Amino acid sequence: MKLKALCLIPILATASLSSCASGPNAQRGTVIGALGGAAAGGIIGNQSGRGLEGAAIGAGLGALAGNAIGNSQDQRRYYHRGRYYGYRY
Hints:
By secondary structure, the protein is mostly helical. The protein has one domain. It is 88% helix and 0% strand. The longest helix is centred in the last third of the chain and has 35 residues, at 51-85. It is elongated. The mean pLDDT is 78.
């Protein structure tokens, strides 16, 4: 039972962080980063006998990195759309 509860932590972290992301690329980047970070963290953590803790830490760091990258893409798209097509916001 405790193992199942610990497996939900990365999923809940991903869902809560993706709701705070602003644009579509930021949301997608948060989810993909969290899943990739959880997988990498789980593999690395398993080598030291702490796979679930590694997955949780990897999910958090991956979500933050994915959100930053996706937010950068959203801002670049917003800037280019306004500049090249003459929109004023």
